[in-house]
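From the methods appendix. Each design record in this collection lists the tokenized structure first, followed by the designed amino acid sequence. Records were kept in a plain field format so they could be parsed without special tools. The example shown here is representative of the layout used throughout.

RECORD:
FOLD TOKENS (190 positions):
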């Protein structure tokens, strides 16, 4: 009986820790969306950095949970997205021109988390580059509903490409300097 009670307590503690990590992740994702770094030709947010860092550091399950909770908060009308509430809130924002990028971030959260498991620096870099391709592919495909096809790359990729490569490099270096972050998270969840 004591063993069963102990397992229940441990399971509840694990759920509480995971919920805390997800809520903290949503707060950090919101902050990443709101922070704008002066960059040319458009200001840069830290969205890509946060998505990649969560995927590399916490793995696909927690990274996807964070992004789904972030999307749910945004869909519910909380101003969590970049440019909100000025550019709209809720489902209207998600269905707007940046909706494909949001879908790409969700897909990349899982894909990068899965591909980086147990990988060294080059494997993590490769996985994040693949994730970036997914983000841009879904983003540009959705953006095509709003922008003429001749302007898609000029509007939806080129202004952000260098900044996203810098953010990926930052995450790669950070994950090398903080090895075992995913392992530590697993140990905390036990």
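DESIGN:
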């Amino acid at each position: 009986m004591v063993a069963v009670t102990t397992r229940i307590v441990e399971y509840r503690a694990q759920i509480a820790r995971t919920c805390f990590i997800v809520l903290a992740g949503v707060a950090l994702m919101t902050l990443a969306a709101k922070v704008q770094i002066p960059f040319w030709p458009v200001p840069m947010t830290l969205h890509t950095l946060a998505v990649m860092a969560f995927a590399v550091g916490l793995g696909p399950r927690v990274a996807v949970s964070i992004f789904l909770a972030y999307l749910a908060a945004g869909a519910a009308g909380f101003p969590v997205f970049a440019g909100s509430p000025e550019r709209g809130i809720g489902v209207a924002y998600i269905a707007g021109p940046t909706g494909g990028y949001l879908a790409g971030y969700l897909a990349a959260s899982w894909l990068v988390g899965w591909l980086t498991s147990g990988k060294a620096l080059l494997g993590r870099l490769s996985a994040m580059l693949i994730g970036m391709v997914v983000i841009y592919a879904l983003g540009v495909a959705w953006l095509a509903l709003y922008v003429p096809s001749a302007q898609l790359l000029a509007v939806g990729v080129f202004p952000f490409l260098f900044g996203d490569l810098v953010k990926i490099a930052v995450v790669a270096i950070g994950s090398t300097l903080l090895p075992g972050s995913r392992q530590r998270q697993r140990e905390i969840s036990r």
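APPENDIX NOTE: The chain has a mean pLDDT of 89.
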